[in-house]
């Protein structure tokens, strides 16, 4: 694969709902261009884009694939993205680096959730969009319905069909190119077609569609608009140039149709990408001669090959076997071999030019979101603002053999997916793996086993409950032991009460008068209080919001020691906890949930079942933000619940608010479970 000038490159991300036919289109594009020797199929595990073991297993796109193809003396860098909500991090990465977006709609389902979300992301970034209504050969396919849905839901841009389907469903056999006024009829044999005149029954539609294209083209240029309004016909060149300008300026969205699975109208799709979508040069300008600026947008980790870092070059030329400056980490890093990548295949190259994509192997420090440049001319490109993770699982190695390997393997997977995190929770003593959703974490577990030979056990993370007291008590703690020689003697009187200062979990002070307890034993008493507070009387959870005062006691001039006073304090604290009406506390979270207006009622009803308190609502960007406080125990699977209620349209953010008393019925269940766990341990 050779280098191309920026003017001859098209960079396009493929976006859409799961099952809309994205990957089938890419397989057909690769086959028609000669990049693939046979037409790959997702169901057969032969797709050029879905080549990872977990993708073959699930028959779905999980990770972004780079599939460059050569067509009519141009290079089209195609980036395939997942259509499932759990892997939206991949969509964020691709939206950051592509110049154009191709939205793929199922001809039967039309505009679906992930189509809307991709549209919104492209609109916010000002990325030119093309759409294709795919699966036109499927039962109940309806091109006009899909186009009308786009017009209804996608405001701000003209939706402009450039093609008319010839037939639909089982009768779909080709397309009419409105601008060229030609028909392309397919014979069902490997994407071959015959070029013909437009059938008479489509002439009226042809004129209507052409008029809408001319209008969209005219609106991109004041002179053309005046000419159009004066009903003076636009030339073919004026229409084409005006349409290209409208697409580049995000004023128009061209709409095509076809079928990836049966390879119908895919060559016309490739022609349209080259003809109408802007090149890197049109967007960025010719930056080949400038100093280097290259962006790492994705990382893949292979246990045998090592780390593969995917890069887009924005300006200058990226050369292999050189030392470059990572401006994010302010370090120099040796860049070895560089490659063009096509699915799972890699082709070594000496350089990657401005506007193009490739990959670097075995970088040590550089990660997704970092910029490579020249140290003498530093530049830092905008990073990727990934969505936050809201779903967690506790993970532990299945066997002793997995203990040493698990941490290293998960770190490698965290390099691949910045939407993942791994934390060691000090209170629960668990390793907690967090991500976007349950399907994503299921894939992580699969990768651990398939790629790194590590098996793990997963479970819902423990809730960091706390314990405290309701009332004030005065309690005695006494440790006395005689066993020949020096004995052990420690004696304290403790006053325990609820602590109003919630910033201090356990406070300790002393009010000793007359030397009943010598000053040198005060630290031992305080240490005993801290140690005893680590395990409460109800369910063994840490104690919080308790004030302890040492106000009396006694000592023995020979047998007393720091250890004896610490033991006496621990005994007294535990007795005091039992007598001071102990209660169980749970973490309460502040939650902001952003959903479409029509989901508000369902969300509020669901929060009520989760013991949530609604604090308020406010509009934001055409959605509603519901503010609530909800116990953490009720939020552990909320990412799944919210996805179900809103079909993936809702998002939420939560952060710790405070601890509150657990209702008696639920507290009894937690305490009983803690007792069983202790017995089984």
Q: How would you characterize this protein structure?
A:
Helix 6 crosses helix 7 (222-229), helix 6 (203-218) crosses helix 8 (236-248) and helix 11 crosses helix 12 (438-452). The strands form 7 sheets. The protein has an 8-stranded antiparallel β-sheet with strand order 16-15-21-12-13-20-17-18. A 7-stranded mixed β-sheet has the order 2-3-1-4-5-11-6, sandwiched between helices. Strands 26, 31, 32, 33 and 34 form a 5-stranded antiparallel β-sheet that branches. The protein is an alpha+beta fold. The protein is 30% helix and 32% strand. The protein folds into 5 domains: 6-198 and 252-284, Rossmann fold; 293-373, Elongation Factor Tu (Ef-tu), domain 3; 391-459, Elongation Factor G (Translational Gtpase), domain 3 (Alpha-Beta Plaits, 2-Layer Sandwich); 466-580, Ribosomal Protein S5, domain 2; 585-666, Alpha-Beta Plaits. It is built from 17 helices and 34 strands.
């Amino acid at each position: 694969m050779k280098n191309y000038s920026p003017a001859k490159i098209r960079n396009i991300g493929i976006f859409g709902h799961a099952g809309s036919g994205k990957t089938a289109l890419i397989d057909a594009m690769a086959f028609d261009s000669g990049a693939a020797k046979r037409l790959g199929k997702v169901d057969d595990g032969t797709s050029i884009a879905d080549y990872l073991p977990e993708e073959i297993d699930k028959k779905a796109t999980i990770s972004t694939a780079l599939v460059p193809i050569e067509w009519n003396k141009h290079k089209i860098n195609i980036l395939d993205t997942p259509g499932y909500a759990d892997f939206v991090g991949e969509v964020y990465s691709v939206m950051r680096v592509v110049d154009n977006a191709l939205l793929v709609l199922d001809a039967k389902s039309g505009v679906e959730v992930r189509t809307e979300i991709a549209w919104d992301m492209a609109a916010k970034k000002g990325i030119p969009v093309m759409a294709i209504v795919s699966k036109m050969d499927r039962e109940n396919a309806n091109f006009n319905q899909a186009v009308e849905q786009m017009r209804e839901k996608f405001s701000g841009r003209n939706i402009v069909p450039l093609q008319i389907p010839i037939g639909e469903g089982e009768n779909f056999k080709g397309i009419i190119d409105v601008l060229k006024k030609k028909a392309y009829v397919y014979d069902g044999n490997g994407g071959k077609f015959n070029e013909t005149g437009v059938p008479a029954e489509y002439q009226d539609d042809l004129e209507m569609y052409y008029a809408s294209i001319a209008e969209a083209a005219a609106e991109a240029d004041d002179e053309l608009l005046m000419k159009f309004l004066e009903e003076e016909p636009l030339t073919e060149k004026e229409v084409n140039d005006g349409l290209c300008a409208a697409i580049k300026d995000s004023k128009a969205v061209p709409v095509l149709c076809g079928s990836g699975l049966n390879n119908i109208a895919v060559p016309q799709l490739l022609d349209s990408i080259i003809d109408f979508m802007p090149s890197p040069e049109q967007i960025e300008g010719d930056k080949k001669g400038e100093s280097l600026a290259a962006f790492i947008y994705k990382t893949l980790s292979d246990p045998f090959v090592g780390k593969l870092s995917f890069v887009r070059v924005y300006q200058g030329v990226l050369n292999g076997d050189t030392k470059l400056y990572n401006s994010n980490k302010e370090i120099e890093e040796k860049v070895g071999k560089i490659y063009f990548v096509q699915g799972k295949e890699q082709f070594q190259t000496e350089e990657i030019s401005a506007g193009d994509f490739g990959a670097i192997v075995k970088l040590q420090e550089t990660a997704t979101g970092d910029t490579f440049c020249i140290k003498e001319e530093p530049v830092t490109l905008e990073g990727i603002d990934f969505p936050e993770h809201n779903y967690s699982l506790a993970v532990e190695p299945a066997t002793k053999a997995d203990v040493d390997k698990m941490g290293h393997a998960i770190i490698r997977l965290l390099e691949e997916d910045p939407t993942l995190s791994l934390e060691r929770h000090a209170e629960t003593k668990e390793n907690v793996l967090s991500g976007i959703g349950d399907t994503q974490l299921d894939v992580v577990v699969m990768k651990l086993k398939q790629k790194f030979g590590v098996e793990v056990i997963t479970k819902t993370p423990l809730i960091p409950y706390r314990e405290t007291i309701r009332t004030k008590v005065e309690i005695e703690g006494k440790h006395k032991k005689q066993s020949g020689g020096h004995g052990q003697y420690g004696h304290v009187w403790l006053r325990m009460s609820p602590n109003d200062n919630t910033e201090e979990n356990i406070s300790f002070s002393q009010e000793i008068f007359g030397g009943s307890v010598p000053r040198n034993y005060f630290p031992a008493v305080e240490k005993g209080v801290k140690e005893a507070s680590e395990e409460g009387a109800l369910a063994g959870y840490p104690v919080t919001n308790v004030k302890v005062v040492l106000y009396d006691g006694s000592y023995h001039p020979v047998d007393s020691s720091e250890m004896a006073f610490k033991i006496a304090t621990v005994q007294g604290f535990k007795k005091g906890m039992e007598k001071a009406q102990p209660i169980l506390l749970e973490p309460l979270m502040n939650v902001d949930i952003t959903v479409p207006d029509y989901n508000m009622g369902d969300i509020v009803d669901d929060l009520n079942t989760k013991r949530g308190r609604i604090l308020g609502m406010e509009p934001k960007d055409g959605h509603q933000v519901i503010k609530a406080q909800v116990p953490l125990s009720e939020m552990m699977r909320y990412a799944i619940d919210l996805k179900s209620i809103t079909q993936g349209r809702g998002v939420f953010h939560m952060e710790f608010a405070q601890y509150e008393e657990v209702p008696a019925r639920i507290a009894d269940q937690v305490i009983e479970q803690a007792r069983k766990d202790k017995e089984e341990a």
